[in-house]
Design brief:
Rossmann fold; 3 domains; 6-stranded parallel beta sheet; 5-stranded antiparallel beta sheet; elongated
Length: 465
């Protein structure tokens, strides 16, 4: 979906853009945000860049979250953010300190809820951290009913799920957008002690990639985040390698081209495993593992690549052929589409052992970047699967407990058992259905689910009854 512009008598709501970064960063220095929002703290320009460059456009493109900047006129400075998340049918919002107390937030929220109801939605949810009376005031003035207290649906920085206040607005509620006629449902303790000016008029919105307060109401899916391995789970890595190695050997000619194709491909895969794991363990850097693979592969043919520049050029020529063969597995898009349609509240991410730039180029190259909120790589963190820290990091990025996340990958021990040991639901994608008895026993002992196609994943990602 393309971003939608909304207008009220005083406000202009449009999609935030990169030029809004300084305003987002400035507003998000408010110390009150640290107490009631789950956005990164301290909030940095890098957080704002991720939010504006990737998260906002991806939210619109995938129809997962519609995010608006609040301005007084077209092109005006960003005063705050308001959003609607389709999966949980919940709203979130925050307003910069200097703009509070003027009724801007109820006016903006009213515009958003009217638009959402116009899309056929029947009910919209709201929540805030208990004690955030300014957010409760905004919800009350916007016609929301108070539906009770309960744990926040999202994890805060310290791993807790603090007490929250919850509300709902139904399409049939005959309440003017800004009337206080739902007051009877709101306990006195949700009202500001000193009036209704000031405070953090906010119930949560995605800022810098972290959900900051709004959730899915008082219930949530059993699995709220699905995380994928990339190579040979979504992306057909081994197929691209086979095509790339064969084409590169043929281009080189001579003895290397005349060698047995099956044996040479097997040797390349073995060298990839050996030297890539040396990179993951820290023994080699990223370019070093590429050079080691290249040198070892050509050595039997009497070719030496002693000079690093020559080794790099040899590998780059292979990469050209490898990249030409990039493609997805035939069940990848079906899986992503089915999850989006059948389980729209579920959020998606990637955990991959590798270099961020190179792995991101694969996602961009095969056109699936917009599906994923976060791409977590070992190259950025300094530790790799199956280290439980990388799975824990991913859960923190999404603001969920490990038990609310599922991880699926094609390697039993690195992916599925590694995830299970970290507290996630581990799923092993055994595409060839040729698991050994020992592997099946290991999977069962670790509580790992086994599937043979990504199309089977939808049956595992089921909401709680």
């Amino acid at each position: 979906m393309k971003p939608v512009v909304l207008q009220t008598p005083r406000l202009w709501l449009d999609s935030p853009v990169m030029t809004d970064a300084p305003a987002v960063v400035a507003h998000c220095q408010d110390p009150l945000f640290e107490k009631v929002l789950t956005l990164p703290w301290p909030y940095t320009p890098a957080d704002a860049e991720f939010f504006l460059r990737k998260f906002v456009p991806n939210g619109w493109a995938t129809k997962r979250e519609y995010i608006w900047a609040i301005r007084t006129h077209e092109g005006g400075p960003l005063m705050g953010i308001v959003s609607y998340r389709t999966g949980g049918s919940d709203v979130g919002f925050w307003l910069g300190a200097e703009h509070r107390g003027q009724g801007y937030m109820p006016e903006a929220l009213g515009a958003v809820t009217r638009w959402v109801f116009g899309q056929g939605v029947r009910e919209i949810l709201w929540e805030c951290v208990a004690g955030n009376t300014a957010s409760a005031t905004t919800a009350r003035k916007s016609g929301f009913r108070f539906t009770g207290e309960g744990p926040s649906t999202l994890q805060f920085r310290d791993g807790s799920f603090p007490p929250g206040w919850h509300g709902a607005l139904h399409v049939d509620d005959s309440v003017p957008a800004f009337a206080d006629s739902s007051a009877a449902t709101w306990p006195e303790y949700t009202r500001p002690a000193g009036g209704e000016v000031g405070g953090v008029e906010d119930s949560g919105v995605e800022v810098g990639g972290s959900k900051v307060g709004g959730g899915g109401g008082s219930t949530s899916p059993r699995v709220s985040v699905v995380l994928f391995d990339l190579d040979d789970t979504l992306f057909a890595h081994r197929r691209a390698v086979a095509i790339g190695v064969t084409a590169h050997r043929e281009a080189l000619g001579g003895r290397i081209a005349a060698a047995d194709a099956v044996a040479e491909l097997a040797r390349w895969h073995a060298l990839e495993e050996l030297h890539y794991h040396r990179y993951l363990s820290g023994e080699l850097d990223y370019l070093g593992q590429r050079r080691a693979r290249s040198r070892a592969f050509v050595e039997p043919f009497g070719i030496t690549l002693a000079d690093d520049r020559v080794a790099d050029a040899w590998f780059d020529a292979y990469l050209v052929e490898y990249q030409r063969a990039w493609t997805l597995h035939d069940d990848t898009l079906d899986c992503l589409t089915e999850l989006s349609e059948l389980h729209p509240a579920v959020r998606l991410g990637i955990i991959t052992n590798g270099d961020l730039h190179f792995q991101q180029s694969k996602l961009d190259g095969v056109g699936i970047t917009a599906w994923f909120e976060h791409v977590i790589t070992s190259g950025e963190l300094g530790y790799a699967k199956p280290d439980p820290r990388i799975f824990a990091h991913a859960c923190r990025e999404f603001g969920v407990r490990a038990a609310q996340a599922l991880y699926v990958g094609d390697r039993l021990r690195t992916d599925a058992i590694g995830a299970a040991n970290a507290g996630l639901t581990g799923v092993w994608l055994d595409r060839t259905a040729d698991a050994t008895d020992d592997e099946n026993t290991a999977a069962g002992a670790s509580g790992v689910r086994v599937i043979h196609s990504l199309r089977e994943l939808r049956a595992i990602v089921a909401p709680a009854s």
